[in-house]
Amino acid sequence: MTSENASTETTREDIPLKSGAKHTKWYDCNDECFNGPKSINSAFGALTILITVALLVQIYYGDYQVVPHGSVATDSLECSKIGTQILKRGGNAMDATIASAFCLAVVAPHLTSLDAEGQLMVYNHRTRSAPTVIDFSSSNILPNKIPRLVVGLAYIHQQYGTIPWKELIEPSANLARKGYIVSKMLAQAVNRANAQDLFGRLEPGQLLRHDVLANTLLIIGNITEKELYSYIDSTNQPIKSQAVKSTFHKYNVYVPSLESIGPVLLVNLREIEEFNFTDVNVGTTKGIIQTTLKTFDEFNVTAKFHEGTSTNVAIIDLNENYVSLVMGMYNLFGSKKSTSYGYVLNVKNKEKPCSRIPIILADEQYICGKRMVFGANGIAQATQIVSNLIIGNKNATEGIEAPRFYLLENSTVAVEAFHSPKFHVQLLDYLNETHKKTILMPEPYYSSNIVEMLNDELSSHSDSRGGGIASRF
């Protein structure tokens, strides 16, 4: 515990969220819980007393301070904390996303880099208008001007940023300079991809510094915003579009549309909804596997989409801006070639779009019902998470940490060999009997990080598969 003021102290997801004054909202989530003249009269009387007390307190003590609340979930505690620090300084969810994304390009080079691609979806629950999608994975972005991820984040800053560009990059530059602790996932990825030439043989827990990358980040941060935006022209501009929406068990499901696997996910969810499942169990999971296999075949998913690496940032800020950013490269460590600027190059000749997908869920009936922001890599992962959260009514942690199956080429079904909890033995027996191509999936696994709101309560969780911890204040 630090000596910071308790009202602004950052809390981690493994520490209970502190209570504090809530920001005055345009709606009151408790309104949905009261009805009838007696309740109204009682509430009015209580409100009168509270206002009187509040006025007396204010006269005696002076103006009170409104305590904002927000949360950032990423694959790294350092990156989650960098995001919440930006929120605490008055930045919005997009500012925090930019800062967190640069941090991930430092600490997770097996998943992302300054040359990574991605999609961002932003939704404001106050307006409830369709989310906006910014896609910087298309072929019209020319990374020979500035790296692809920088183009995407610069465009996001141009459209939504409120904190100076330089201040969003400096924390990551400092982290690259002082070093960070190598995660188990990064060490596993080096061995799995035979990428020892990039960083040597890494061991979990060792300190890794990137001095050259730190210098590059400082150079990028010192680019004036006018010059930065000049790189975003008709030949080097991300695609901005509107998300598409479907419903699933009385929840609105928002996903990207353009050249995205999102619409395929919506089809898969509609097929599953016809079963009228009321819980997630062995029988439900069997149905989800069979339906998803059928969707894979009908839409020729493995031929049309490539499952590259994936890491995601999920954020909800004070003003109920919800942001999901998914980004990654074609393979672990991309092309396995490092530039003289200290970042790994992605594979250039990409023939098909990636299956990464940002997702936002919101209760269709109640404005203060559950709202969830997360990312996934492929419709199998996304379908299981949506089903866990909505059909299974699991909380953020349980919904994300539940066991997962993977669908690979030639209808191969894979299950996680090392993640816990595991599937029930009955389901494993079923897979071994009916799917002769069932295999065990080795680590590392791609994660899915989530921020969730119910009424005014905020919760968040970083997937243990990615090794991160969410941060909130």
Automatic annotation (TrEMBL):
InterPro entries on file: GGT_peptidase, GGT_ssub_C, Ntn_hydrolases_N
Domain of life of the organism encoding this protein: Eukaryota
TM annotation in the entry: 43-61
Keywords attached to this entry: Membrane, Transmembrane, Transmembrane helix
Keyword Hydrolase: no
A Pfam family this chain is assigned to: G_glu_transpept
Official protein name in the record: Uncharacterized protein
Upper lineage: Eukaryota, Metazoa, Ecdysozoa, Arthropoda, Hexapoda
